[in-house]
């Protein structure tokens, strides 16, 4: 809106920038005059604005920046220690979101609570109560969350295995022992596969921590 824009410029000059003397602001204040664009162009040159009058948004941003700088210069002591309201709210939210942030780990009640939890969950004792608390957290996350309990409750249906198709590689001389040996070998292979999976998970976890471009699989670079 042209009228709002002109009023805005006049307000900035009158209240914040004050580049002109009061008696010299008449042409700029006459917002209904056909010559106002020329007065505004002259004003922009006088305050050394680097933008053209046609660049409205850039001009407004620049004038606001000038007004803020002058306002701060006039009241530096008032504003130097100010904290934005948004930052205060963020700090309060963070504190409320982490009720344990000011926890006293040397408090006897805290130690007693950790020890009681450790005994209940059959976790080995440790001199550092924070270490025990971390162990409790890991156990709860992996075993006692709703997802973990639901996953553990799911029945695993295995596929039938034809033992005669798997070569044992040796003969005990007893058909029953041969069959038992084949079953043990298959179970052993399954355990090795689970172990390899855990090893791979451990490698990925370590890579995520060190984030080394030479070894981090996520960066797509290996050995370079």
TrEMBL record:
A Pfam family assignment: RLL
Similarity field: Belongs to the RTRAF family.
Protein's UniProt name: RNA transcription, translation and transport factor protein
Domain of life: Eukaryota
């Amino acid at each position: 809106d042209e009228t709002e824009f002109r009023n805005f410029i006049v307000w900035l000059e009158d209240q914040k920038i004050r580049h002109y003397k009061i008696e010299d602001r008449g042409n700029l204040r006459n917002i209904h005059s056909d010559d106002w664009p020329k007065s505004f162009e002259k004003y922009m040159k006088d305050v050394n604005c680097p933008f053209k009058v046609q660049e409205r948004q850039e001009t407004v941003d620049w004038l606001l920046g000038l007004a803020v700088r002058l306002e701060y210069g006039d009241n530096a002591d008032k504003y130097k220690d100010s904290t934005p309201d948004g930052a205060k709210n963020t700090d309060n939210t963070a504190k409320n979101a982490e009720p344990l942030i000011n926890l006293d780990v040397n408090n006897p009640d805290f130690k007693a609570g950790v020890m009681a939890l450790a005994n209940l969950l059959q976790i080995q004792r440790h001199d550092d109560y924070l270490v025990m608390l971390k162990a409790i957290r890991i156990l709860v996350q992996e075993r006692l969350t709703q997802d973990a309990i639901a996953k553990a409750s799911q029945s695993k249906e295995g596929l039938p295995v034809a033992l005669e198709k798997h070569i044992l590689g040796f003969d005990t001389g007893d058909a029953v022992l041969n069959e038992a040996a084949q079953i043990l070998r298959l179970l052993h292979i399954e355990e090795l596969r689970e172990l390899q999976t855990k090893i791979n998970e451990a490698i990925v976890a370590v890579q995520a921590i060190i984030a080394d471009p030479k070894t981090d699989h996520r960066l797509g670079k290996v050995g370079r």
